[in-house]
Amino acid sequence: MKRELVKTADGSTTIYLPEWNEHYHSSHGALQEAQHVFIKHGLNPKTEDYLTIFEMGFGTGLNALLTYFASEKRHQYVHYIGLEAYPPAEAEIKGMNYTSFSNDPEAVEIFNKLHRADWNTACEISEHFVLEKIGKQIQELELEKGSIDLCYYDAFGPRVQPELWTPEIFAKIYDWLSPDGVLVTYCAKGQMKRDLKSVGFEVLSLPGPPGKREMTKAIKSLRRPH
Questions:
Q1: Whole-number CA gyration radius for the chain
Q2: Average per-residue pLDDT in the chain?
Q3: pLDDT tens-digit readout, 109-145
Q4: By residue range, what is the domain housing residue 203?
């Protein structure tokens, strides 16, 4: 499938798939969307000393990069599991300009370490951050129940990949989450919210990033429906 490097409205780059008319990130601003959805409403409220984060759609590594710097500042230990069945090519990764927006002198080194890390094994990025990139489909993935604290659900949208937005998938993630575990996503479709609720999540609609009215935050309820 053809992929093009494009610049989004905030100046940060992303990948565009013409065949699907779909971007890896919001065309209104890749960096702003990631910061708003996954860091502000996902990571920042999680104040535990140790976090296991699962990302559905590791992609260009933007969410992992932002998580690294945000968690390092707060001295959190993070085990970051990034699922990606079709990783971008090396040339596409080199075309991402996220590090140019950072004032941290380590930004380029860390971004490169994230992408050079071996697949399907836990790799130490720093003393406090371990990355585990998994090259599978989520339908094939099995994780221990209660083993993750936070899920970044950053898959392609339900218009182009509806199979990734089903009650069956959300039930798997529900089981993987620890008590009070959280899923955050840029998506705000009504059917998705109903499906999240159907498997036990408490669902919150929050203000979205630039260009989007809403985003979704789902919290693991201990009163799962039968």
A1: 16
A2: 96
A3: 999 999 999 999 999 999 999 999 999 999 999 999 9
A4: 29-220
pLDDT digits (tens, 9 = 90+) for 167-202: 999 999 999 999 999 999 999 999 999 999 999 999
Give me 1's structure tokens. Answer: 């499938």
What tens digit of pLDDT does each residue of 4-35 get? 999 999 999 999 999 999 999 999 999 999 99
The whole model's pTM is what? Answer: 0.96
Domain count, the chain: 1
**106: helix, coil or strand?**
coil
Residue type, 221: S
How far is it, in rounded angstroms, from Cα 45 to Cα 223?
A: 22
**Per the structure block, which two tokens stand in for 133?**
């990139």
Q: Is the pLDDT of residue 225 over 70?
A: no
Residue 22, in any domain of the structure: no
**Whole-angstrom distance, CA of residue 62 vs CA of residue 91:** 16
Residue 27, exposed/middle/buried by CB under 10 A (0-12, 13-18, 19+)?
middle
Does residue 8 belong to any structural domain of this protein? Answer: no
Q: Is residue 73 part of a domain?
A: yes
- Burial bucket for residue 199 (CB in 10 Å: 0-12, 13-18, 19+): buried
Scan for tokens 């090396």, then name that residue.
90
Q: Domain of 214: which CATH number?
A: 3.40.50.150
Q: What stretches of the chain adopt beta strand conformation (E)?
A: 4-7, 13-17, 22-23, 50-56, 77-83, 122-126, 129-134, 148-153, 177-185, 201-207, 214-220
